[in-house]
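seq as requested:
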Amino acid sequence: MLIDLPSFAAGGIAGGVAAAIAWAVTRGLRKRQKPAPAPESDGIGIPGDPGTSLVSPPRPRVVGGPPVPAAVSVSADQIRLSERVVIALAREGRLGDDASVRTVRTQAGLASALASNQSAVSKVLRRLVAAELLTEERRHVQGGRQRLKVYALTRRGELLAREMARRRNLSLLPERPEAGNPPRPRANL
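struct tokens:
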């Protein structure tokens, strides 16, 4: 079986040209489409896991515009869930030796405070504990009948919270108490 070399070469060239045209068309379509919104992600990752960051997500690349400053003020819905968890626990201060703690330190309390579902918060908390940014222990919670898992920042988590607050231009001070409730003392980070 002999192959005619000129027709074989012409077929190869035609196939290459068709592939190049298809690539150019799909690339042009991708540029015109708006990117789909990213699913809610924790952004923390596990140490040693390639492609994950323990501090913050990469800054967006701006083509033809000024560079994005490192510390910009952002709204709460633009911050990853893991960062919001760390910031919320940082605002609660250090976990004392008291017998009971506030509900916001539980999975359900964090989910409610952060306006997220409990399963997403549970996954984030599991990863943060594995990354040694949070501690987990069972304690009595105010208003509860049984002991629940409560979470607190480790020293490493406190450092991360300060760094995130500095980069995101956020305050780690506790939220102002509601009218009629006296302010309660908190430990400084």
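The radius of gyration is 25 Å.
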